Every structure is written in structure tokens, then in C-alpha cells.
């Protein structure tokens, strides 16, 4: 393979119920996972309370799915202070990557054996996904927008 | 002078390599590529996209281009993807590749996968070396 291929990751959309659940999971987590998730929650929560950026000049995502909509400047400015630095996001990715997935392979199928662990890992990554989208100065491209 | 393949040879190489992926798939996984291509899969399987039954079109200038690659619309697990494994139709390893954000053979502008999300890739090309 000599050419770089473009990939796209489009998470499920968040909602008030999920945000509430993620806040509770973060509080229970403790340690650096709690700190990281609460940092991300501040950013995602702020974005959630803002109106959606106005359409116009949307561009196709390189993966061939979805459209990229840049954040309106007034919203980007409000979020900027809440978005961790790139090196902090990388550290969070590494930290969350260590979280158990709560899954086991049984009879050739993957089953969830620890729902709490699975929920925490999913919540952490979901928040990280959102902030990484916002770090790209765009409205997060969730799967319902495809 | 170095060894070089004629265009017809490169076309045959690319065509044969592409044919091996008919009905195959690409797994996106966390963690680095295994030391050797044939090593057991590592990391967490986040999701899988699928090649078409005829994975690639006819070769031209030593290049084959993939037909439509079916997205994974319900990702298996959450994680930050760092490598991909390309499998044939019976899930035997064909090749592997790196993934990254702004880097890698598969370049994701956001390489965090969330369980239940969608994973998509742009059209894939395989180029036989000269």
C-alpha cells in the first residue's frame, strides 16, 4: 500500500442522559481517569449548551462519509480555553486505553462480562472523541449526521 | 541498475494481491502493529470494514483501486486505533498497516473509536513496486 488512506470515525450522538451518566462514572472512577474525564466533561458540557454552528461552506469528510462544518468563531472562542493541549489529549488516550473493556471471548463470540468496566471505557472514549472533534474546530460529526 | 518490473508484470502483481482480498475485511485495532505480520492479533478490536466480493478493479499502471468498502456502522469497542489488519475471506492475515491521527497508512483525523459508532475508509489502492 503506497498511498495514505483516509479513515473516519463517527461516534454515536451524546444527550443529556449520557452526559449525566458520564458525570457519575467519572466521579466513581477516581484518580487520573476521574480528572481527565471531568476535564473533558467541562468542554463537552459547554459545547452541548451552545447552539449548533450555522451551515455554510460545509466540506466533505476525506473518508467519503459526512460533512465537515467549522465551528462559528464565537463558539470556538468559548471552547478554546476548555480544550486540553494536544499532548494532554494523547496522554488521556493512553490512559483510557488502559481501562479494561469488560469483555471476554466465549465460544467464539465476544461478550460483556463487566458492564461497569465497559461503560467507563466507552464513556471515557466518547468524551475524548468529542473533544478531539472540537479540537479540529468543527462540529462533531456523529453517526446520525452521515 | 536495480531490478525493475515492466508495467504488465506490475499489473499482474497488483491484480493478484488485490484478488486475495476478495470478500475480505480490514480490522482496526488498538496498540502498535505486531512485530511480524503473521503474529497473533494484538490490542482491542474496535471495528471491521468489509471489502466487496470483488475487492479491487482491473489494474492500471501497476495500481488496483478498491471497490466500495462497507463501513462498520456499529463499532465493536472503544479505543484509539493504531494499526489495521487486512484479512482475506476466510479471515487469514493478508497484510497489516499503521493507523494514526494525521499519520499512518490509514490516516484518521480523529482516531478515537467509540463503541456503536461508524468507521469508514476512503477508497483503498494497492501499488505494485516498480
Detailed description of the structure:
The complex is a heterodimer of chains A (146) and B (130). The mean pLDDT of chain A is 93. Chain A has five helices and five strands, in the order βααββααββα. In chain A, strands 2-3 form a two-stranded antiparallel sheet. In chain A, a hairpin with a 6-residue loop joins strand 2 and strand 3. With 130 residues, chain B is mainly beta. In chain B, the strands form two sheets. In chain B, strands 1, 2, 4, 5, 6 and 7 form a six-stranded mixed sheet that branches. Chain B is globular and about 45 Å long. The model of chain B has no long low-confidence stretch (mean pLDDT 94). The chains are: A alpha+beta (146), B mainly beta (130). Chains A and B meet through strand 1, helix 4 and helix 5 of A and strand 4, strand 5, strand 6, strand 7 and strand 8 of B.
Topology at a glance:
The complex is a heterodimer of chains A (146) and B (130).
Chain A: E1 5-10, H1 16-29, H2 31-49, E2 59-60, E3 67-68, H3 73-80, H4 86-97, E4 103-106, E5 109-112, H5 115-135
Antiparallel strand pairs in A: 2-3, 4-5
Chain B: H1 7-19, E1 25-30, E2 45-50, E3 63-65, E4 79-87, E5 93-101, E6 106-108, E7 112-113, E8 118-121, E9 125-127
Parallel strand pairs in B: 5-6
Antiparallel strand pairs in B: 1-2, 1-4, 3-9, 4-5, 4-7
Which descriptors apply to this entry?
heterodimer, A: 146 residues, alpha+beta, two-stranded antiparallel sheet, 5 strands, B: 130 residues
Amino acid at each position: 500500500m503506497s498511498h495514505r488512506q483516509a479513515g473516519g470515525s463517527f461516534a454515536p450522538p451524546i444527550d443529556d442522559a449520557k452526559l449525566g451518566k458520564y458525570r457519575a462514572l467519572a466521579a466513581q472512577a477516581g484518580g487520573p481517569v476521574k480528572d481527565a474525564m471531568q476535564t473533558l466533561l467541562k468542554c463537552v458540557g459547554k459545547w452541548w449548551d451552545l447552539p449548533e454552528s450555522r451551515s455554510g461552506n460545509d466540506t466533505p469528510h476525506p473518508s467519503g462519509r459526512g460533512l465537515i462544518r467549522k465551528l462559528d468563531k464565537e463558539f470556538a472562542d468559548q471552547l478554546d480555553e476548555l480544550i486540553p493541549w494536544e499532548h494532554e489529549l494523547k496522554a488521556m488516550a493512553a490512559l483510557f486505553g488502559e481501562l479494561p473493556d469488560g469483555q471476554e471471548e466465549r465460544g467464539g463470540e465476544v461478550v460483556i462480562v463487566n458492564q461497569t468496566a465497559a461503560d467507563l471505557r466507552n464513556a471515557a472514549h466518547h468524551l475524548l472523541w468529542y473533544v478531539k472533534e472540537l479540537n479540529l474546530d468543527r462540529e462533531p460529526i456523529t453517526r446520525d449526521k452521515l | 541498475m536495480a531490478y525493475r518490473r515492466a508495467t504488465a508484470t506490475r499489473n499482474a502483481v497488483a491484480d493478484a494481491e488485490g484478488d486475495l482480498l476478495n470478500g475480505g475485511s480490514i480490522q482496526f485495532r488498538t496498540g502498535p502493529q505486531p512485530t511480524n505480520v503473521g503474529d497473533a492479533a494484538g490490542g482491542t478490536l474496535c471495528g471491521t470494514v468489509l471489502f466487496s466480493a470483488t475487492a479491487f478493479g482491473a489494474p492500471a499502471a501497476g495500481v488496483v483501486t478498491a471497490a466500495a468498502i462497507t463501513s462498520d456502522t456499529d463499532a465493536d469497542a472503544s479505543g484509539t486505533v493504531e494499526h489495521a489488519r487486512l484479512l482475506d475471506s476466510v479471515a487469514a492475515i493478508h497484510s497489516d498497516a499503521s493507523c494514526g491521527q494525521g499519520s499512518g497508512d490509514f490516516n484518521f483525523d480523529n482516531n478515537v473509536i467509540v463503541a456503536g459508532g461508524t468507521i469508514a475508509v476512503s477508497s483503498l489502492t494497492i501499488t505494485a513496486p516498480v
